[in-house]
Amino acid sequence: MNTDLNTLWQRERKRREPLWTLEGLRPGAKEAKPLLTLLDEIAQLDLKSPIGDACSMSVDALGELVPETQFVGCDGYPFVIILSQHIPQPWRERFEAASPLSTRLPEGSYASVRRRFLRGWVREMQHLAAHREARMND
User: Looking at residue 3, what is its pLDDT?
Assistant: First the structure.
């Protein structure tokens, strides 16, 4: 599958903003309606024009697929990272969009940051589902 990184980056940034805003809103809040509409439009784009080979991969499958790599820093301190090239698209861009201020190495991100992203993604999708359900019951 052809990966248009510019389009993918723009789509993931467009998704990230309403997800962050929804975090502070209770399901059923009227302020959520335009955000849900925007997220629905992005979901439709994901279905019509998927970007990346792993567009249909679940977060659980991603967690199992991407290996953690032992790394020794220049000071001799060992830690664990996720090599960027091991994260399939669109998940790499989702991770990057959700973690813009995270400290990272040129080779990749700290595994703990990636684990936090995966847990956060699950919570965000559950919260989004609660918002969508409240909208349906409205």
Answer: 61
